[in-house]
Prior knowledge:
The complex is a heterodimer of chains A (293) and B (536).
Chain A: H1 2-27, E1 51-54, E2 57-59, E3 65-68, E4 71-74, E5 77-81, H2 112-126, H3 131-144, E6 148-154, E7 157-165, E8 170-174, H4 189-206, E9 209-213, E10 218-222, H5 224-239, H6 244-255, H7 262-271, H8 276-292
Parallel strand pairs in A: 1-9
Antiparallel strand pairs in A: 1-2, 3-4, 4-5, 6-7, 7-8, 9-10
Chain B: E1 8-11, E2 19-20, E3 31-34, E4 44-49, E5 55-60, E6 64-68, E7 94-97, E8 110-118, E9 125-132, E10 137-140, E11 148-149, E12 153-156, E13 166-170, E14 174-184, E15 187-198, E16 209-214, H1 222-232, E17 237-242, H2 256-260, E18 267-271, E19 273-275, E20 278-284, H3 288-298, E21 304-309, E22 312-318, H4 319-333, E23 336-339, H5 356-360, E24 364-368, H6 374-388, H7 400-404, E25 414-418, E26 434-435, E27 444-455, H8 461-464, E28 465-469, E29 473-481, E30 484-493, E31 501-504, E32 532-535
Parallel strand pairs in B: 7-15, 16-17, 16-18, 18-23, 23-24
Antiparallel strand pairs in B: 1-2, 1-3, 4-5, 6-8, 8-13, 9-12, 9-14, 10-11, 10-13, 14-15, 19-20, 20-22, 21-22, 24-25, 26-27, 27-30, 28-31, 29-30, 31-32
Helix pairs in contact in B: 1-6
Amino acid sequence: MKRVITQFVTAPMFLVCLCLVMALESQGEEKGDNPMTGAVFTNSQPISNGFVFVEGQYVDAPYVISRKDLAIYINDKFIVTYAPLVKELPLPEKDRPVCPSNISTNAGPNDQVVTKYLYRMQNYLVAKQGRAEVADEMENILKTLPCIKDVKRDRGNNECAIITYMNGKTENMGLVPPSRKPVITPTNAVEYVSRTCRNYVERLKKGDFYRFAGNGSSIFTFSAQTAKDELPGLVKVLRSSQDDETKAKQLREMLRLPPISEEESKVFVANLCPSKQLDERVEALIKGDKSDK
Amino acid sequence: MFRTTTEIWCWTTGIRRGRVGLPGSLPDTLYVEGVSPSYTNADVVFYLSTPTSCTDSAKVTVVKAALYTDTNNDGAIETEDSGEATYKGFEPGRILCVNGFGKDATTDYLAEIKPVVQPSLGNGTAKLEALLGGSYIKVWTTTDKTTEVTLPKTYDLSTENPPGSLYVDGIATGNVQLAWSYTSGAVTFQDKVAMLIIPTISYAPVSSNAYVWSSLPSLGVDDGTAFQDQIKDQGFKVTWFSDSSASDTNFEQCTLANYKNMINAGAFTVISHGDKGEHLAVYAEDSTNGQAACDTWRGGDTNLVTRHYQGFWCVVARSSWLTANWQSGMNANRTIAMWSICYSASDNPGTGEASVKEAAGGRWRSGYFNPTDMIEARDVNNKFLKRMNGTTDNARKRTAGEAYDGGTDYTSNLKMDGNNWTTLCPAPLADNAVFPDTAAGNRKGWGCIIFDTYMNQNNPASDALLKLSGCPTTDHRWFGNSDGVYGLGFDFDKTGGAGTTMRAVADKCRNDGGSKGRQMDGDRVTPSGDNREWSF
Lengths: 293, 536
C-alpha cells in the first residue's frame, strides 16, 4: 500500500518538474539581469553592448546568444559545440573481467582486444582498491598477457609502466587512470552549456570583446575597459591602405599576441568586411574615453 | 649703541613686532631672535656703550637644532631652511617602504635623517625621539644596520658628538614623527620631521596576456571561466588554447608552439590531468594514429613522453621539461600561475622531480597536493582572484600574499607559493594613499598619491597627475626608490586658500612592465580603469 501511494505521489511530481523544464525551454528567454542559475537556456534578449568577431568577421550588434542542443550561437553564427565533450562515465564492472582467450602474441599497444580488456579491468579494480594496489595488480595482469614480454615500472611515475611487447614495440602506459574526472555528462550537458551561455550574456552586457575562431577552440577576450585601449588601434590597422600581410603583422604586434599564428592574423585581416557600425561604435568608445578624462 | 652681527634680529616685543635696526637707540626691553646659527660658541656679542665711555657686553650663542630628511621624496635632502624644510613636519613627509620584498627577499630600504646642532657645542644635550609611531621604525647608525640606536637617544654634548646621519628602517606601516632637540639648562629647542611607513610595493605581471590551457575540456572549464572573468576586468587579455576533442588526432589550438609560448603569459591556468612531477599536456584518440599524433606533437623532444592510458594517448611534460622550457620566462614575466591539475603542488621524491607548479616557475604559483576537480579549482580561482581584484574583503587583499592568506578559507588541498607582493594591476594604497587628504591649511607644501605597485614611467607625470581646480601646483613628478617608482608627487602653494582637487588618471597610471602596463584600479574594486580624485 505504501509503495502504491509513493508511486501515486511521485508520478505527478515528475510530471510537474517535466512541465516546468519544458515551460522554461519554450519560454526561451533569460529574464532581466538575474539569470536563473541552473535553468535551461535557449535565447537571450538582444544585447547592445560588447564586440563580437567570429572567424575574423565583425558581427553587428545587438547580440542574441542562443543554444541549440549543445551548441552556442551568437546572432545565428556558430561559436562552439560541447557535443564532443560529453562523456558517459563508465559504470563499474560488477564482475572481474575475464582475460580474452584470443589475445595474439603479436598484439601491440593499440590492439583493440587488449586495450578493451585492460580498460574494463582497470575500471573494475579502481572501484574496489586504492591507486597503489590497482597499479600493482595491473602490473601483474599485464605480465600474464601472452603479447607482453616485459613490464617495468616507470621511474618517472610509479603509477606507470614501460611495457615491452613480444613484437618488439614498447610503450609508456598509465596503470591507473588520471584522477580528475570528466564533468560533462549526458545528464548535465544542457545545464553546462546553458551556464556558458549565461556567462556570455553577462559579459557582453558589460561590454566585453570576444573573438572566436577555430570552431570554438580559440577564444580571445578582454573587458570593456581594455576595449577602449585596444579597439581603436585595431580598427585603424584593419582600415589602413596597407597590404594584408603588413596589416596582419601590425595586428599581432599591436595586440602583443605571439601565440596567434600568422595564418590566424591573416584570416582576421582578410575576413573583416567594412562595417559602418564597427567604425561608429569604436568612434563612440574614443569619444567616451576622452570625456572621462 | 648696539653693535652685533647678522645672526640675529631684535624686536621691541615678544611677538616679533617692531624690529629694531642695529646699531640703534636704546629701548627698555629687547627680544632677540636667532636667524642663523652661530659659527662658534658665544660669537654674538651685545655691546652697550655710552658717550661717556661706560660699556658693558653680553654674549649670546644662536643655537640651531634641526632634523632634515628628504621630505618631498625627490631623492635629495635639503639642509637649507627653505623648500622642503618648510613643510617637513606635515604628512606624509619622508615615505619609506617597510621592506623590499616586492623586488626580492633581500632588498631593504632606509631613510637617511640628518640631526644637526650648530654651532658645535661642548655643553648641553641633544635628543632624538619618536613623538609618533616609534614602534614602526628602527634607527641605525649605518646602512649596513650594524648598530641600532634605541629611541629616545640622548647625546651628552660635553662628551660626544651627535652623528651626522642616521638611517631609519620601516618595520611596520603608519605615520611617524621624529623630533630632534637641544637642551641646555631650562632651555630646549626642538625640530620635527614627518615620515610615513608604507607597505612593501608589489610588482604586477609584465605581460597583459592571460592564457587558459584547456587541452581536455571534458574535465569541465568552469575554473577557466572563473579565472578569465576575474582577471580580464583588471586589464588582462585572455586567450584560450583549447582542443575540443580528445577523440581525434587534431590538437587544434593546443600546439607545441602554443605550449612553449605559454611563457608569454602574465597569468595562466591549466585545465588538464596531472600527477606528481608531471603534466599531461595534450590528448589524442586511443589508436595507432593517436599514438603517432602524440609522437609528432613532441617533435622529437625526448624530455616529453608519449603515454598510453586506457581510452587515450597523451603527451606528458615532466617537471624537468617545464623547468628547462618555462621557468626562466615565467619568472621574468612575473607570471601568476594557477595549475588546476591534480598533484601539481606535490613533488616526486622517487624521481627527484619538483612539483609542476614550482618547476614551471612564475612570481606566484598555485597548485594542489592531491587530486582536484573543476568545482574545487573554480572556487579557488574565484576566491583568490576576487580578493586580488578587490571584489571581496573590502578590497584589502589585493596582493597575492593577502589573497592567499596562508590558506585561510581554502581547502587544505591547495598550496600557493611565491612573492606575496604581487598584484594584478596597480591601485592606490588601501591606507594613506593621497596627501593632503583633508583641508591642508593655507600654506605651501608637498602632496602625492601612493600606489601599491611599481609603476611605468613612460607616461609623463604631468599627464598622469592633473590639477582639476584650485591653487597653483608645480613639479608633478614620479617618485619611488631605487627599484622603481610608486607614486606621483607635486608641490603646491595654497597660501591663497583655494580648495584644490587633484586627479590621478588611470589611463596614464599603469604598472611597470612591458611597453604599456595595465591601468590603475582607482577605487581598488574591479573593474580597473577608474581615476582617483581627492581634494584638500
